[in-house]
Design goal:
The protein has about 200 residues and is of the alpha+beta class. It has 5 helices and 9 strands. Strands 2-3-4-8-7-6-5 form a 7-stranded antiparallel sheet, sandwiched between helices. A two-stranded antiparallel sheet has the order 1-9. It is globular and about 35 Å long.
């Protein structure tokens, strides 16, 4: 009986240790995610932008190399979709562009030139209804065929959306996928309200 009681106590102690270890690991992972989101929200706030992690998406490691740098990235688990965000305040943009209120066009074209497989892309201006949803003054979207590259994590297509608010800032969102069919646009639609100008 004593041996059985000793075995039970040992199993109980191991189970408690495993629960404690899992709890600490979960808190460490959560604090890392929380830290990235806090930093992105700080950067966004400087540009007068509000961001909320959309339901169904999770944070991913931001991309940063000599060709592209993004402030924050999200993905939808089980779906072939990633969204990378770059936000810039008017002050930041005006350091690099003579006309900061039209820099959103140059920023998008720079990304298209880095990403494009054939330098062919489809572009359109965002209409007033869409701009009003983001409290923005101007914007464009670009649908691009991607080069097979580690820079774009070997995705095939990108929808690049860039919007700006006069004398406030710029938002650049790169939506990546391997299938540009209706499911991709449905997934992107689920994230459309996650970022906007104040």
């Amino acid at each position: 009986m004593k041996a059985l009681l000793r075995q039970f106590k040992l199993i109980y102690a191991i189970a408690c240790l495993m629960v404690f270890t899992g709890s600490v690991h979960g808190q460490t992972r959560y604090s890392q995610v929380d830290k990235q989101l806090k930093e992105f929200n700080r950067i966004a706030n400087e540009a007068n932008i509000v961001f909320t992690l959309p339901e169904g998406f999770k944070e991913i490691t931001p991309i940063s190399n000599e060709d592209v740098t993004y402030d924050y990235g999200i993905a939808m688990p089980g779906h072939d979709v990633e969204v990378w965000f770059e936000v810039k305040s008017y002050k930041q943009v005006s350091k690099y562009y003579a006309n900061a209120d039209s820099a959103y066009i140059s920023m998008a074209k720079e990304q298209v030139s880095v990403f494009s497989a054939d330098n062919a892309y489809f572009t359109r201006n965002l209409n007033d209804n869409i701009l009003a949803q983001y409290n923005a003054d101007a914007g464009k979207s670009y649908l691009v065929n991607l080069s097979d590259s580690p820079v774009t994590r070997h995705y095939k297509y990108a929808l690049i959306i860039t919007i700006q608010k006069d004398h406030t800032g710029t938002i650049l969102a790169v939506c990546l996928t391997n299938d540009k069919g209706p499911d991709f646009f449905k997934d992107i639609d689920k994230a459309r309200n996650c970022i906007r100008f104040k």
